[in-house]
Amino acid sequence: MGFVAIILVIGLLQLLHLQLLRLELPERSHRGLPWALAALHLPLVVYAAVRFLAPGEVPLPGAFRFLARLGFYFQALTFLHLCLAMAAEGLWRLSRHPEPEPEAEKAGVDPSRRAFLRTAAVAGVGAAATLGYGGAREAYGDPEITRQQLFFPDLPPGLDGLRLVQLSDLHAGPLVGLSLLRRWRELAEREHPELLLFTGDFVDSRADELGPFLEAFHGFRPRLGTFAVLGNHDYFDDPRPIWRDLARAGITSLENRAALVQRNGGFLALIGLQDPMARNGRFMHKVFGPGPRPNRAIRGVPDAAFRLCLNHRPSEWAAARETGARLTLSGHTHGGQINLIPGVNSARLLGPYTEGLYRQDQDLLYVSRGLGVVGLPMRIQAPPELVLIELRRELTPSPAPTPPRR
What we know:
Layout: H1 2-24, H2 33-53, H3 62-96, H4 103-106, H5 111-140, E1 144-152, E2 162-167, H6 178-190, E3 195-199, H7 211-216, E4 226-229, H8 240-248, E5 251-253, E6 257-263, E7 266-272, H9 294-297, E8 306-310, H10 317-322, E9 327-330, E10 356-360, E11 363-367, E12 385-393
Parallel strand pairs: 1-12, 2-3, 3-4, 4-5, 7-8, 8-9, 9-11
Antiparallel strand pairs: 2-12, 6-7, 10-11
Helix pairs in contact: 1-2, 1-3, 2-3, 3-5
């Protein structure tokens, strides 16, 4: 069903695009346009068929996957082109409204309309190129390092001052390579964390994309360990190789389970919730877990332990709070990744928690914008983020002394 929907969307977009291109381009190019569009999209259609109908079973050459990605980018350009054309058509009609339409122009295409649309298309492509260049620089530049001191009155004294680094949404794959992963590792290591925590989406879509991540982070061993949960993209393919390779690299996956960390006599319970994608089976036609199960995740966790939950999707914060977690770390939103309207975060489509720190009663949620990109190789008004958190014990202030009675 998903594959059929993709083909219908591609077909409809390109049918509309073909009509627009015939209007904008010289007539001598019209005969070859359908063939050019078909050739451009054939790798994308074949790739979608393999991913949906035989996931993980038919290997595709890297060059073929690259061509499929170009076809995907062309879809984005097509959508932008059509939107610009509709806007240009409206402006042209407004500008011509007072003038009667000549009879000669009714039979064919008004040359002024064709020229106006062509100019709008050139201007739009130029604007898109400029925006894309700026977005790529933002996406592939150094991430912002967010340093947070979070205070909890019930933090065990032994955990006071604990430093942890959260990395999220790396998306190792076609758009995120080894050099970028190494840079993120270098910046994280400079912060000297005692704990390294990953909140999902290690890979873009395939388990075999994990290799560069493992190479980049090899030997990075914080004193108290490295822990992780998988994200929805890690379930686009069979996640079992990811679990296996993370374990071999010394990274503990917490899928509906907890790990206990001791520091100076204080206990920290790291609780992980499984992403709902595990039970979806949309891509693999298989189920790899039940999704988030708070009660299962906290089995054996002592009451005295301070609880921190790793939960890829901030929309699942309610489930995380069921574990008794005073602090929840999430990612998933990319901070919207591409925010074209100033002050408007496109991640609002995913829920109310888009980026940064949130409080509900005494519990806190931090949503990281993550490091990588998905779909398009750009970020706009959503720079990548590396999060350093220091847990502090907030002492209850002593009551004011009572003045002596006279």
